[in-house]
């Protein structure tokens, strides 16, 4: 079984999701995405695994940086948004748990149970 979590230890939902996994005796590969940001190929894969129609759906839209960068501009294409996430990984919604080719955003943490 392949299991990983894109984790930010400073985020309460990320910590809660990791604790939920560990309470089920699951030891995911922990990817601290702020230290090791995902590349564009990985982000494309995550969009697909999450079943999202747009990169925006895995971005933190309420983050001040999202507004500062004017990311709600409909002229920005998916490739533009992917590059923004590579350059600004703090905009990635968190946590994301991936298991065997499926992914879920842990907001709330219980959402990840659907793929376990």
Automatic annotation (TrEMBL):
Reaction(s) catalysed (UniProt annotation): [glutaredoxin]-dithiol + arsenate + glutathione + H(+) = glutathionyl-S-S-[glutaredoxin] + arsenite + H2O
Lineage summary: Bacteria, Pseudomonadati, Pseudomonadota, Gammaproteobacteria, Aeromonadales
UniProt organism field: Pseudaeromonas sharmana
Domain of life: Bacteria
EC nos: 1.20.4.1
GO molecular function: arsenate reductase (glutaredoxin) activity
PANTHER family per record: ARSENATE REDUCTASE
Family according to the record: Belongs to the ArsC family.
Gene: arsC
Pfam families: ArsC
Protein name per UniProt: Arsenate reductase
Keywords from the UniProt entry: Oxidoreductase
């Amino acid at each position: 079984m392949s299991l990983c979590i894109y984790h930010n230890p400073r985020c309460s939902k990320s910590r809660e999701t990791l604790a939920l996994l560990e309470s089920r005796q699951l030891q995911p590969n922990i990817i601290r995405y702020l230290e090791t940001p995902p590349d564009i190929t990985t982000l494309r894969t995550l969009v697909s695994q999450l079943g999202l129609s747009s990169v925006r759906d895995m971005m933190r839209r309420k983050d001040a940086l999202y507004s500062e960068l004017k990311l709600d501009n409909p002229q920005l294409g998916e490739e533009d948004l992917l590059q923004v996430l590579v350059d600004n990984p703090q905009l990635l919604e968190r946590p994301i748990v991936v298991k065997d080719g499926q992914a879920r955003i842990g907001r709330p943490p219980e959402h990840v149970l659907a793929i376990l």
